[in-house]
Design brief:
The chain is an alpha+beta fold. It has three helices and eight strands; from the N terminus they run αββββαββββα. Strands 1-2-3-4 form a four-stranded antiparallel sheet, sandwiched between helices. A four-stranded antiparallel sheet has the order 5-6-7-8. Strand 2 and strand 3 form a beta hairpin. The radius of gyration is 22 Å and the shape is elongated.
């Protein structure tokens, strides 16, 4: 029997190497390639300030992108969801959820933690439209790893943006005529 994890590996490699339809001009740096539950995840930082997240589930592949600011805010919210120590009352449960929506086309990512008296269960839901997606059950460690990878992607994107700005300012200076050195005077 072939495991889901071994059948997803080629999809992970394809996600990391295919040119993105979201922005052909932006250079991208792969921040993470990992397996979470039964899904393969690739996270890329781009020079145009966006972060790509590609998720390959058992039946489909979804690629999403956001500006780095909302991703940083989501990572903060998701960390709070993971760190909460609140316990439910007897015979009760509650859900904690951090959502990162894609306003222009619908869809997004949400991390859900269901808390019961027996413990917590975690799920990562990925959708590319407002009505289509899939859920991936993950462990607490895998959820923490995913949030950490997104935090690293934010840092890498910000570094790429600042490096790109520095490179473009240097190029602007190289087109200016060179400054003349003053002639040495002898006394």
């Amino acid at each position: 029997m072939i495991s889901i994890r071994s059948s997803i590996l080629p999809v992970v490699l394809a996600l990391a190497t295919l040119p993105s339809a979201l922005g052909a001009q932006a250079r991208k740096v792969t921040v993470a390639r990992t397996l979470l539950g039964d899904a393969a995840v690739v996270i890329n930082a781009r020079t145009d300030g966006r972060i790509e997240v590609g998720v390959a589930g058992p039946e489909r592949v979804i690629e999403l992108a956001w500006p780095w600011g909302p991703v940083a805010t989501w990572a903060d919210s998701a960390s709070k969801v993971l760190r909460s120590r609140r316990r439910p009352a007897r015979n009760a449960s509650f859900d904690w959820r951090a959502e990162l929506d894609r306003a222009e086309k619908g869809g997004g990512i949400s991390l859900t933690r269901k808390v019961t008296r027996q413990g917590s269960t975690y799920s990562l839901f990925v959708a590319d439209t407002s009505f289509g997606g899939f859920a991936v059950p993950v462990s607490a460690d895998e959820a923490e790893i995913f949030v950490t990878h997104l935090r690293n992607a934010v840092k890498t994107t910000r570094r790429l943006i600042s490096k790109s700005a520095a490179d473009s300012s240097e190029q602007g200076d190289s087109t200016a005529p060179p400054k003349k050195k003053p002639a040495p005077t002898s006394r």
